[in-house]
């Protein structure tokens, strides 16, 4: 009997199961078409890699199909400069440790060999003999595919066979100015967005997930999805932030081509793909990068430089050209081989500061005696110059939690060169304010206005990410004070403020419909809540917010300049009311916001109007369809009247709902 599975919209539909992930990852793929070219490591490859500028190095290191003297097989190459010997072992030779020795190439520490008859799907590892004679077994740092955990081997895979169908998206991407385009990001963890009822891990494959998430994101009008935990990682509970396979889409959800199908499908439906990317630290597991050839080549041997004491992870040694090359080429790999549209760089602050999360004696100052990581600064400038220079439509987004200057500044102006920066200050002030009892909010009134004072410093994204709904922080709706109905009313007005504030938008999955439990990677979102009026109303409200955002250019064309935002009254702290409008110099359509952050209704509320004329109400958060009440009926059109209010010569008068958000369109 076919399983009936609830979709994200609550409808019952038969979920087509194309085979479990475990069967897919354990299968042996067919051989690729015969290759005429021979893959090998040349002197030029060694030279460029040693300089840190071999941006195609992933095409040489790792496992690649080759043809030598008329014989088809696989060329293997690995960087292990301190190894006494390296052998390839795998399922193709019964894991024989002596059959396939590798040959050292030049002086840079690269080893290579050719193995005839090796095929797609075969498992393999590098057996490295250290100078002391110890044998260690390592997964391939450049592998395109990995054995499903708890297995730790790499898997040979052919990346040449997938036929892309997203040419229209790719052709248009580099022509867009994403600073002046709408950018609404849905942060998502594939393994816990929705679980399959067949048992086991409950993971949908990349292909099955694609068919479900596309329908949902199109309904909600998101422009992009940001995917957590795509690079291979051994532990589900790390959420993908402790990586062992930087070049391998995790096998939890299928093959690399399955992941390509996901990206392809999203692109064909007008949705961009951003990946979380983790160059700040890596997993210390024995089969990974740590002490790779018996010595520290990816990390610094000094634990004060090479380890995060709080996280139990290793820190990339960015002083080494080969390590920088590994990371920069990795970004280019995801762009070229998987068509991704951006990366969100995790934990940037931990890279920029040598003393981040460390006590005295746990870190080493730079050559000038300071705490700035000069190698990380140079790395970011190098990475952004190369990646954004080659692919102007590609976004690099920094999760940077301090006031480091010019994160999105131009490299030639001593900036780091990122496209956008998460506005962590805005997020913190916003969440702290919204958690307050309404009686106390007037004392923190300027929490919600402060971010505009520095808004022009960077190109900002306003993030409400997974980090804000875990570790006893509560979900977004449970942060809100009051009874149940008050919590949802609070959340509606909170999201309206987020929509209206300058900056691009990001929201973590489940928060769009009022997920009540904290997020856990072990279970799916609480889709059953959509049976409740408040949750279905919250989802509908989120949809309406993004409809307004996508429809009106004034909402996104100018996000880092006062030319796009103007306060009407930021100082009404006694009533905890905020009013402002969004604008562009060239478009006559403007959007005005009036937000009441208390449970007090104000009859005949008056607010200064930017101009005379009619103001059409396009959103009222108190409406019943959103989970609000029906007692308040704000008219569809409000006519401005002459008279001084909020230092303006005209005003609007209407009944402002309790916890009410009123959004109006007007022209001038």
What's a concise summary of this model?
By secondary structure, the chain is of the alpha/beta class. Among the domains are: 113 residues, Immunoglobulins (Immunoglobulin-like, Sandwich), CATH 2.60.40; 106 residues, Sandwich (Immunoglobulin-like), CATH 2.60.40.1180. The strands form eight sheets. It has an eight-stranded parallel β-barrel. A six-stranded antiparallel β-sheet has the order 23-24-25-31-27-28. It has a four-stranded antiparallel β-sheet with strand order 3-4-7-6, with no helix packed on it.
How would you describe this protein?
By secondary structure, this protein is an alpha/beta fold. The chain has 14 helices and 31 strands. It has an 8-stranded parallel β-barrel. Helix 5 (206-220) packs parallel to helix 6. The protein is elongated, with a radius of gyration of 27 Å.
